[in-house]
Amino acid sequence: MRAETVRQIALWRYHDGLGCDTIADRLNQDLVKYPPPEPPGKQRARGAWGKSSVYEILRNPKYTGYQVFNRRASRSRHGKVNDPVKWVWSPQPVHEPLIPKWMYDELNARRQANRGSRDGNDPNTHPETRRTYVLRGLVFHGCGRRMFGSHRHHSAYYSCQPRANNRGRLDKYAGHEKAAYIREDLILQAVSAFYADRVFAPDRRDLLAADLATVEDHETRRRDADRDRLQRTLADLARRQNNLMRQAQDCEPDDPFGQQLRQTYNDLDAERRATLAALADLDAAETDVPVRPTGQDAGLLDALPYLIDNLTEAPEQLLRGLLDTTHLAVRLHADGNDVTLTIRLPADDLPLIAPNGGITA
Question: What pLDDT does residue 128 have?
Fold first, then answer.
């Protein structure tokens, strides 16, 4: 398993909100760059990524750099995974993390809310599907449950009805109203005002101009960090190989210790070749420099304050793309008809987007 592959899976999951199936499909499009994992039994190898492989990577706490004990039951339950509250974490990281601990924790927190929800907003493949809901998977009730779309009286609604599919667990939703509804058109009106005021306000042009003059290329910085890490790995591998060579020189050809040293040397050499290949991929990626906006492109921002009048009329596919890109979440308060709208944007841009802190309405 390549470290770069694990990082890419986590980034797709965290920043793009992709499901395990979608991530597996992306990985399978380039098996040279993202070689699939090899199971202990070669006869079980599929030669491709599957949903379960992606899921196991995202759930494996050891990718955070910490050592985790008691993950599985050793004396009963046939080795099933224990409740995470029973896991024992090392006090400090024991190796370089591939997935930051804070990202791992947030991905786990999101998993329950997104369970059973497919990616995108394409129609359900069920033959009786008649319509789509532009806010599918983005609207939550105050109880924490994701609200589902329904259609009644020629209007789209989002509702939360825990008693309909939680028989036997009603104590968890004690005090919950029988059914909570909110109309889609009312949400979209609030969303339009929110984006026009908080995201695409009239000062966006000035902020973009300042950003173009000062911002560093994030991709360049990331590649530089990756290159430095890979070069340090190569230097460490060379040091370890030289040390093994010195020890092997004093061993007879049939000495078991010398044979083991040579095997270790060969393993390190294979790792060195893989690191060199990763460096080559990194250098090749530098040719794909994204096109950055210019000062002339900033003129398009002059029309954005009028978005409130037109956002609800935008094609559903384009509107959904905007909502997914900004990670919109709509939360209906349990004790009234108020909603809280939140979006998530790159951390580097937050000081410009919300200089007073917070992007919540």
Answer: 61
Q: What is the pLDDT of residues 48-78, one digit of tens each?
A: 888 888 988 998 999 999 998 888 877 665 6
- What 3-state DSSP class applies to 152? strand
* 189 phi/psi in degrees, rounded to 5: -65, -45
H/E/C letters for each residue in 35-91? CCCCCCCHHHCCCCCCHHHHHHHHHCHHHHCCCEECCECCCCHHHCECCHHHCEECC
Residues 6+ apart with CB under 8 A from 183: 155, 156, 157
Distance (Å, whole) CA 159 – CA 140: 9
Say if CB 49 and CB 138 are below 8 A apart.
no
pLDDT, one tens digit per residue, over 165-191 is: 555 454 555 667 777 888 888 888 888
Q: Which amino acid is at 60?
A: N
How far, in Å, CA of 265 to CA of 215, rounded?
44
What's the whole-number mean pLDDT along residues 247-271?
Answer: 81
Torsion angle (degrees, nearest 10) of CA 100, 103, 105, 111: -140
User: Is the Cβ–Cβ distance between 359 and 345 less than 8 Å?
Assistant: yes
d(CA 144, CA 268): 49
